[in-house]
Amino acid sequence: MKILIKNGMVINPKTNLHDKRDILIEGGIISRIEACIHLEDDVEIMNASGLIVTPGFIDLHVHLREPGFEFKETIETGTLAAAKGGFTTVACMPNTKPALDSVETIANLIKRIEETAVISVLPIGAITENIQGEVLTDHEALIKAGAMAISDDGKTTMNDDFMRVAFENARKLDIPVITHSEDHVITSQYKEEVYPIEAEYKVVQRDVALCKEKNGILHVAHVSGSEALKAIKAAKQDGLNVTCEAAPHHFALNTSLIDGKDPYSKVNPPIRGVEEQRAVIEGIRSGLVDIIATDHAPHETASKETTYGNASYGISGIETAFQIAYTELVLKEKISLDQVVSMMTIKPAEIGRLKNVGSIEYGYKANLTLIDLEAESVIEPSTFLSKGKNTPFKGFKVKGEVIKTIYQGKTVYSKI
Fold this sequence. Notes:
It is built from twelve helices and 15 strands. It is α/β, with parallel strands linked by helices. The protein folds into two domains: 2-53 and 364-414, Urease, subunit C, domain 1, CATH 2.30.40; 56-351, Metal-dependent hydrolases (TIM Barrel, Alpha-Beta Barrel). Strand 6 (57-62), helix 1 (75-84) and strand 7 form a beta-alpha-beta unit. The protein is globular, with a radius of gyration of 20 Å.
């Protein structure tokens, strides 16, 4: 069956398209993009009047918790939540149990993805065994097994020589090293308090220097402040292959809006003050911040209904990411919608070396997101499809809502 999406306002940053177009899908692939397409027979019509149509969103930083922590999230629930948020491709971090540190574990995860995921899930392999920073994994074997990048995520690789090897392999294999920037020597001293921002930017500075030394490929996760951004800006000006991401909670929140010691606001790196929030926003405006990534980190209620020191780090963010980005960046900050869409589609596709996604073009996968920009709502975590209801955005008023998500020509989420 052919599918014809008619009368939508198509936003496709890769081709600078922002205009009404009809889109024809055949066999899960985009076959035509024209001002007006007429077909008589054997076609399903989707009327997108009043909606914008974008490439399916891509998130390079999620935690799907499977294997090992299925009480927090599963591949199935996480991808259903992602689809509700408009995402058709996500990359999952390796901090599972067992960690994604072997060919066998990657293979088992891919089997689960094939069985239960409703969208594309790309594993990220661990830099070190069990992400403990003590023994290097076989990076090349992990990539051949299906990993799209390497990272030790929340267990920052503190061994400089290990990072040198990671950057050498990144260049050899043409994949990014994705870094969670946290100096554990500093953060270990702050169990009951919010740790200082030096713990982030000192590791960013180190990783930029090591990336330069080895001519590597570096992607810095969830940047939260000005000093880290200065190091990334200098790296880019120096011609290094360095990119970075910002999460919605870092550009939409600050400690004057939320209690930084509320367990539901506890996230790593922490939400900072107004000046650091402004630095992230201006980094987005200038293009210094390359992409928006959610760091979707679902947790069971019990791990948040406790003291700050005992609470788990993380926010369940994939279902609200576009609404928050549209409300905070486009409506409040007057950053263009096309730029925000680019940061959630073609730019992450480029960083992740992903083929035939992130753009609405002939021959590309029919991964599409249909959005009502006028829809208004209040964020209510009880409605999340994710198992994780942990969000500091409860009660926030937002605009823009995903109405339908199409993955390879199949509707995987529909509000109507």
